[in-house]
Amino acid sequence: MKNRSLRNRKNLSQIVQMLNAESVGQVCTCKAIIYYIVHDYAPFYKSCTKIGCQKKVIDIGDHYWCNNCNNAIPSPDARYQLKARIQDDTESTLITIFGDEAEELLKHPASELKNLIKSENGIQTIKAIIDEIIGTLIVFEIKISQYNIQSQGRCGFTAYKIFQVDYKLDSHQIQEQIEQVIEASQIFNDTFQAHTPT
Ligand SMILES: [Zn+2]
């Protein structure tokens, strides 16, 4: 089976163009560079501690509540929710990177950064740590949602998974594409010659 980071590889422009009702649920990968972090949002949220839920919890005074589990959550986790602008040669878009994926990129657990908030210059320190990922080339796995179709991609996508760029794998993929083009033009030439009157 093809390496997951190469599956259904598209460029950003192709992804925006494929946003129609039939593409809901389609999973594709794209390789893009992070060029900006949107700092208008808190980089983490308080999340449900139940495995498999991790939804945002509501602060109701003396405790937190998860609407998804219908349960009180005594001490919620801090979970990343990073909004970044990414671009490739064709297009730029917003992407949200959650939880473990963001942690893998930043190499700092969310709880660690969250503890910095109260320290002196904490917010600036957190921003600086997050901004370190600017300029990183990443392979993003995106799953097209109904929401993406409605907003036609303007509100951005969610990164379901991220992969470090494997240059060896990637060059192999390019090689394969070149071979396919050569093959196709060979077939075209053969057909063309077969139909040319002599
Ligand atoms: Zn929950």
Key terms for this structure?
198 residues, alpha+beta, OB fold (Dihydrolipoamide Acetyltransferase, E2P), three-stranded antiparallel beta sheet, 6 helices, 33% helix, elongated, binds zinc ion
Structure description:
The chain has 198 residues and is of the alpha+beta class. It has one domain: OB fold (Dihydrolipoamide Acetyltransferase, E2P) (Beta Barrel). Helices cover 33% and strands 28% of the residues. The protein is built from 6 helices and 9 strands, in the order αβββββββαααβαβα. It has helices spanning 12-17, 99-106, 110-116, 122-131, 146-150, 167-195; strands at 27-37, 44-47, 58-59, 64-66, 71-73, 77-87, 92-98, 137-143, 157-164. A 5-stranded mixed beta barrel has the order 1-6-7-9-8. A hairpin with a 4-residue loop joins strand 4 and strand 5 (71-73). The protein starts with 11 loop residues before the first helix and ends with a helix. The mean pLDDT is 90.
Mean pLDDT: 90
Distance between the termini: 46 Å
Please name the fourth-level CATH homologous superfamily: Nucleic acid-binding proteins
The strands making up the biggest β-sheet line up spatially as 1-6-7-9-8
* CATH hierarchy: architecture: Beta Barrel
Q: Uncertain spans, ≥5 residues at pLDDT below 50? A: none
InterPro entries: Euk_RPA1_DBD_C, NA-bd_OB-fold, Rep_factor-A_C
Organism: Coptis chinensis
GO molecular function, one term: zinc ion binding
Protein name: Replication factor A C-terminal domain-containing protein
